[in-house]
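Researcher: I'd like a structural prediction for the single chain below. Treat it as a standalone chain; there are no partners to consider.
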Amino acid sequence: MNVQFINKTSSTSEPSAGHTHSHDGQSSHSHDHGGDHGHTHEQLDHPATVTNDIFTREDQEFLIKNKALPASRILAIETGGCPHAAIREDISANMGALESLQAKFGCQILFVESGGDNLAANYSRELADYIIYVIDVSGGDKIPRKGGPGISQSDLLVVNKIDIAQYVGASLEVMDRDSKLMRGDGPTIFTSVKKGTGVDDVASLILAAWRTAGSPGTAGAVGDTE
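Model: Treating it as a single chain, here is the predicted structure.
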């Protein structure tokens, strides 16, 4: 089964545009990115997700407890080793779980959570078409300039917990500058998920990439139609 995710190229994609966000909740500025913004009110039918942990199902249990999705649409993989190997070197377990969810629910979009924020980790393009790498300010403003595939090669970099930057001595301006140096024109969004800041921007970029993939935008499976 061919599981369609998000980011296949399309000759019908619209010209690139910028997005605007705020670091401090007051003043705003923009970053350029490829593709157009989506509408966060748009809903996709039957989303599902796969989580990866070493010896537990902690992330799956968290998502179920917080009712992110119906429990049947959240599968967990216990990798028995570094979860990052299961998204890059040997993707068979994750691909099998995704194919199972696709066959059962006819998903329009599927998510894979890798576990952790190893700077050396990145998804295989055979597994994921649109890659989001998330860091937070508690690691210090040095993290973006340390680079690594997650920082430099992801389709979207998210810097979370900006509301606590002043308390941990992290400069959002430094992180913004270094993210641009490491990523070029690749989009970076600063968020405070707990406060809802920047979440709409993240959702908009995901939906824009989903539409660029040529997805039908209607209910039903999005895999092979042949």
